[in-house]
Specification:
Blueprint: H1 7-27, H2 33-42, H3 47-57, H4 60-72, H5 85-121, E1 126-131, E2 134-140, H6 141-166, E3 168-169, H7 183-193, E4 196-197, H8 208-234, E5 242-243, H9 263-284, H10 295-323, E6 326-327, H11 329-336, H12 345-354, H13 359-376, H14 380-385, H15 388-391, H16 396-402, H17 405-408, H18 412-419
Parallel strand pairs: 3-4
Antiparallel strand pairs: 1-2, 5-6
Length: 421
């Protein structure tokens, strides 16, 4: 990923665009065939020379063109015909972002594979579902992972669309009017680069495209933040249902030898915040003065390389976390049983409603015993079986059926099938 953003790759891409533009002009008879041959044979640059010229002219594209011209000689007058700097810079950027997105797509596909494997492995690993951090109803760890798999699939679709949006080029001149070159040149160059010509442009390609791309990257990072935050919660000492990898020889604290902290997941969460800030900066780059000002340029030189490199790192890092994830099914089962059956309260409520009670009446009967179970730490089932009002409507066997774990998980196969697992 880093190679995409190195100076050499950038200059190589700029040179490729300039040569293709010369070819297009040659097709139109503007560049003599013999001149095109010389340009192709001699075209090159020297990075140190570019840096030297740029210190004087303070313009990177001018410095690049000057370095190339020194190698080509007189035929260099055919370089950059009718173009403005950002015809080259933005078209090259479209190619770089396309290449970066392709790597990120591969990362996401790899992450989905690991999530699918874990989801199947723990499809029936029972645990308690939590809302507001409080025990709710039974789920499985595999279902939780299946949800992540589905979300990662949506992110994959988003990134593929975003890649199409930024895989865009423009060679339309200083204000997008093709005043000094025909649209054929743009079409010729973009088609050979595998880019789509911008239907209309100013001096630059509109930055809503780049903002969409960065927002997509930020959303992907935010999903990783969500997943990592869940693991962090599950790793709390009081919960300890899952735990990120802890390598042999790793130290969790300089003071407390017993510590095994979720530092990798915390790193993912922290860096996701940085990714969201890049998306904000990308949005700020959309409104520019008239046909273009340069306020976006300095920002993009930081956020586009950083965002793609950082997300590449986050995706690889989180995949490693999942591959080494420690899962504790016995602890999950014990935690599910902490409230001695309270997680089945809705099943009892609905059973009473089926017997003809209003929802309000049924809710009151069940809640009364549920609150006693909370406060007195009595098994919920025992309290239900001792309540004459509930026994007027439900037999002991019917109450027992309400506390059946299998009832809550009977649609697991259907859910997995809907996700495509």
């Amino acid at each position: 990923m880093a190679t995409i953003w190195e100076a050499k790759n950038r200059f190589d891409t700029w040179l490729r665009i300039e040569l293709l533009a010369c070819e297009a002009w040659a097709e139109l008879g503007k560049v003599p065939p013999e001149a095109l041959t010389v340009i192709r044979d001699r075209a090159g640059y020297d990075v140190r020379r570019i840096e030297e010229i740029e210190r004087e002219v303070r313009h990177d594209v001018v410095a690049f063109l000057s370095s190339v011209a020194e190698r080509i000689g007189p035929e260099a007058r055919y370089l950059h015909l009718g173009l403005t700097s950002y015809d080259v810079v933005d078209t090259a950027l479209g190619l770089q972002l396309q290449e970066a997105a392709t790597i990120l797509i591969e990362d996401l596909e790899g992450l989905r594979v690991v999530l699918a494997q874990l989801a199947h492995r723990h499809k029936r690993t029972v645990m308690v579902g939590r809302t507001h951090g409080v025990h709710a109803e039974p789920i499985t760890f595999g279902l939780k992972l299946a949800l992540w798999h589905a979300e990662t699939g949506r992110n994959l679709d988003r990134l593929r669309r975003a890649r199409e949006v930024v895989a865009c080029g423009k060679l339309s001149g200083a204000v997008g009017t093709f005043a000094h070159l025909p649209p054929f040149v743009e079409q010729y160059v973009c088609s050979r680069l595998g880019l789509t010509p911008a239907p209309a442009s100013s001096q630059i390609i509109s930055r809503d495209r780049h903002a969409e791309f960065l927002s997509t990257l930020a959303l992907i990072a935010t999903s990783l933040d969500k997943f990592a935050t869940e693991i962090r919660h599950l790793q709390r000492t009081e919960v300890l249902e899952a735990e990120e990898p802890f390598a042999e020889g790793q130290k969790g604290s300089s003071a407390m030898p017993h510590k095994r902290n979720p530092v990798a997941c915390e790193q993912v969460s922290g860096l996701a915040r940085l990714m969201r800030s890049y998306a904000q900066a990308g949005l700020e780059n959309v409104p520019l003065w008239h046909e273009r000002d340069i306020s976006h340029s300095s920002v993009e030189r930081v956020i586009l390389p950083d965002a793609t490199i950082l997300l590449d790192y986050l995706l690889v890092r989180f995949r490693e976390i999942l591959e080494g994830l420690r899962v504790y099914p016995d602890r999950m089962r014990r935690n599910l049983e902490l409230t001695a059956g309270l997680v089945f309260s809705e099943a009892v409520l609905l059973a009473l409603v089926e017997k003809g009670l209003s929802r309000e009446e049924a809710y009151g009967l069940v809640q009364r015993q549920a609150m006693r179970a909370w406060e007195e730490r009595e098994p919920f089932k025992s309290l239900l079986l001792a309540d004459p009002q509930i026994l007027r409507y439900l037999s002991p066997d019917e109450i027992e059926n309400c506390l059946d774990l299998g009832y809550h998980l009977r649609h697991l196969d259907e859910i997995f099938a809907r996700i495509g697992l």
